Amino acid sequence: MTQHDDETLPEDIAAEAPADPAEDAGEDAVARLEAELAEWKDRALRAAAEADNVKRRAEREMNDARAYAIQRFANDLLGVADSLQRALAAAPRDGEAASVVEGLELIDKALLTAFENNGLKKVDPEPGARFDPHLHDAMMEQPSDAVPPGSVVSTMQPGYELFGRVVRPARVVVAARVAAANPYTPEGGDAAGAALDKKA
Question: Which domains does the chain show, CATH number per domain?
Answer without folding.
Answer: 30-118 (3.90.20.20), 121-185 (2.30.22.10)
